Amino acid sequence: MVLMDRLGRPHDYLRLSLTERCNLACAYCHPVGGEQIVPEELTWDEILFAARVLVERAGVRKIRLTGGEPLVRRDLSGGLSRLGALRRELGFELALTTNGVHLSSWLPALERAGIRSLNVSVDSLNAQRFKAITRVDALPGVLEAVRQAEEAGLKVRLNMVVLRDMNLDEVDGAAAWALESGRHLRFIEYMPFGSNGWRSGRLVPYGELLARLQANHRLEALAADPHAVSMDYASPGKPGRIGFIASMTRSFCGGCNRLRITGRGRFRPCLFSKPGEEVDLRPSLAARDADAFLAAIQGSLDLKSPGHESPQDLATRMTRPMQAIGG
Ligand code: SAM
Questions:
Q1: 8-state DSSP, 168
Q2: Residue 2 within any structural domain of the chain
Q3: pLDDT digit string (tens) for 127-186?
Q4: CATH number of the domain that 186 lies in?
Q5: Residue range 58-69: average pLDDT?
Q6: Does the pLDDT value for residue 88 go beyond 70?
Q7: Least confident of 20-34, 44-58, 71-85, 229-243
Q8: What is the pTM of this model?
């Protein structure tokens, strides 16, 4: 069985939030007015059950751990090794999205669990600016952890959210750094989420960013797979790549294969789902009822829209904060 929505889109990629907690308070993400999240977490028994059912019975072939910040989950060590054992038994791909602050110390455990690819958020390559955006002085440690992960042979992609008044002035330098140092840096369009203070003027459309970068770099578009969210470019003679995740100005919903389970165990068919489209998986997880669990997910998937609303429309309704969804 493969999970399908009404449009016939097969869904075989799970983004699983381990916690809503985060150790950064990024200006564009953290709810305006401070901490509004009272974290609740699925137990590892529930997480392992969900992963097993989705892989064994619903054809999920890839699970990405995210959050909040997945590496601040308190009982991570034991859970990761159990997930690693399940991965070895069932053979799915395991990946992680992190802000990298605790990456260095977790790297050996991540490798033991079989994680071979990481997305690391780096919104500025300038230490002062990084601190101003995230409210934590952590850039050198994040870049060192990226280097260690690369040295260990992991595939690392760097993600940079671009805001006009925050870091647009850095994109040229960051692109040059990535292209020349052999890294893959993806620029993400700024999205509206509950209480993140979104304003259209802060969004830098990818077309504008691409034109700006093309003025200084020879960029050639690379072929993308049908589920890709990023449009990637190489520059002849340079080892790196840059990409654009243009969630707001270019729809890639047609190829969506993503399932999302939030930190507190709710299933969301889309990052921008409306409240009525979400379903609470905890009753079926607590009962270890695989049929009810899959039926709940299918019921929610049946409500999945062909695409999401415009950023202006999204900004007028309160979606959950990003850290309560799982990015
Ligand atoms: N803590 C991890 C991290 O920093 O990568 C995982 C969770 S975080 C919510 C996942 C990604 O979502 C990060 O790359 C972050 O920059 C991005 N993100 C958060 N809020 C966003 C927003 N309003 N617009 C665009 N990207 C956003």
A1: G
A2: no
A3: 999 999 999 999 999 999 999 999 999 999 999 999 999 999 999 999 999 999 999 999
A4: 3.20.20.70
A5: 97
A6: yes
A7: 20-34
A8: 0.96
Q: How far apart are CA 168 and CA 211, in angstroms?
A: 13
Quote the ligand 1 centre to 322 CA distance (angstroms).
Answer: 7
In a domain, 5, yes or no: no
- Residue 193, domain extent: 13-324
Q: How far is the first Cα of the chain from the last one, in angstroms, to the nearest whole number? A: 26
> Does 311 reside within a domain?
yes
DSSP E strand boundaries for the chain: 3-4, 10-11, 13-19, 62-67, 93-98, 117-121, 155-162, 184-189, 220-221, 231-234, 241-245, 258-261, 266-268, 279-280
Instruction: Kindly state whether residue 3 falls inside one of the protein's structural domains.
Output: no
Number of domains into which the chain is organized: 1
What separation in Å is there between the alpha carbon of 261 and the centre of ligand 1?
A: 16
For 172-198, b where at least 16 C-beta lie within 10 A, e where not — what string?
eebbbebbeeebbbbbbbbbbbbbbeb
Ligand 1 pocket, CB under 6 A: 22, 28-29, 66-67, 69, 97-99, 121, 159, 161, 188, 190-191, 193, 196, 322-323, 327
Q: Kindly report, residue by residue over 139-154, the tens digit of the pLDDT.
A: 999 999 999 999 999 9
CA of 28 to the centre of ligand 1 (A): 9
